[in-house]
Amino acid sequence: MEESLQIRRFDEIPSAEEFASRIEPNNVPAVFSGCVKDWRAFSKWNVSNGGLDYLQELVGSSVVGAMLSSSAPVFYGDIRSHERVPLPFSAFIGYCKDLLQCGDDGEDSISQLRKHKTVGLSTQHDDHVTGEESPQQIYLAQVISCLDLPEAQGSCSFEFELVPITNAENEEKAQLECLREDIETPAFLEGKVLASINLWMNNARTRSSTHYDPHHNLLCIISGCKQVVLWPPSACPVLYPLPLYGEASNHSAIPLENTNFSLYPMAKSIDEYSQKVILHAGDAVFIPEGWYHQVDSEDLTIAVNFWWRSDMMSSMSEHMDAYYLRRILKSSVFSYLCSVTRVSKCFIGQDRMLCKPSSTVDSKEITASGQSSNGSRDQDLDLKHRAAIAKGNEQEFSLHELEPHTLKSLHELVSLVHHRINQNQPVGSISADQSVSSASEEDEVKKFVKTNIFNLEEDPIANIVWNLEPCAFQSVFLTMAHNFPRTLETLIMHALSPVGAEVLTRKFEQMDKMTAADHGSQFYQKFYSVFDNQFSAMDALLNGKELFARQAFNNVLVQYLGSNLDSPKPSEE
């Protein structure tokens, strides 16, 4: 975990100014010890000190939404497994008291509580509960607000209750306003426009599925204990979020138990990105928007949370959404950090597909500066090539002038191009003095369909090019242009994969940074001179790069949004 993402713990409660300037803008969770110990709720709602009786007397007549779920004690975001029924808050308090009694008797509190639940609900809601043998467990839940409906249904409650105490966007949703006097808004939230304040209460041990919220969140523990595991938004790829178009898009698809790593291979790295905090009564944790979190709650835990919109989201204008979306997606394509093979400076939008190439240069030949020990001779040869181009003297492009490792790379490239073409072409092999552009052979070459290879380690041609230093790269392709022009043409027009096109153009960029403009112009003049149609060659390179970028874009959609460009449309299935 990066140091900048480490969770901080504060023993002293920050001021509003300190929170707004030093904590909230960092978008990193923070724990505040003893944050709510001065609340009246901290003493009045204490389960071990008559808190249940107090709550029952205060708000027992309120009716809240209850959900029946077969996945208890784990609550997953998919609402297809839930059934919503109304339930008096006093009935829920009764279930909590039953749990206390069953626990004291040493009996199976869950099975006993299940009997009480089904009998009690069958009397009043025969349409929803079928009888004592029902395998479902009950919890209370309430949609937060109309504005947050898509996320709220996916992230509200998990085997316990979420009921708005106050709701700035819909007063009718705030059913427990009478509890507001027992709660104090922390001083460091002064000036925040709160979306809602919610009560969370569970009767038995519960687990939430891993999810994120669309608001900043301050979770305050009144009674009991919670364990919160957190992941930064950048860990999204290893968490496999559900599709963006789904009703539970803010939830991870990974089950909390018995993870199938063949289905979710990157989940093996899930612990590398996680941080765990234990919250006791009186503590609070700031969970920034977008941070994934999974919560385990002990029996009879009561919490209150505050939701508010971040400054960034509040300042975003709706008419700019399309622009922001395109900018973010484009940025993600180029900077999506490697989540499977943790290689320095490798990323998966595009660059994870360029990870771990097998080097064609012996490591002993690399100097401390990172250059090949033969680099000086390659540079000398490069100067000779430039002079030869300027003079038009093609005799200077001699194979014997190349360094052994550069010559080896050239021969490997030529051999691989011939092999790749010959796999699809019954005509004889291509040599330096044999043109593949004759009528019959050209027709055969055009039938060749390039393999859509997108990972560097799967493409030996791209691998060789990737490992060439700029000077050696220039020498190889100038020599190829002179001695093997038809092979170079075939490489670019017919044998270059998408990852090969990306690698080749990146090498062009590296070379340009080390070469004067006039010398670079001479290189490209010689390079493109082998093509009958230079624009077709450029088009082939650009098409390959765009195919590579499309695959990178698709990787981003799959890993960040759970969507796939290549998924068949309903009409195609």
From TrEMBL:
<dbReference type="InterPro" id="IPR041667">
    <property type="entry name" value="Cupin_8"/>
</dbReference>
<dbReference type="Pfam" id="PF13621">
    <property type="entry name" value="Cupin_8"/>
</dbReference>
<comment type="similarity">
    <text>Belongs to the JARID1 histone demethylase family.</text>
</comment>
<feature type="domain" description="JmjC">
    <location>
        <begin position="174"/>
        <end position="323"/>
    </location>
</feature>
<protein>
    <recommendedName>
        <fullName>JmjC domain-containing protein</fullName>
    </recommendedName>
</protein>
<dbReference type="InterPro" id="IPR003347">
    <property type="entry name" value="JmjC_dom"/>
</dbReference>
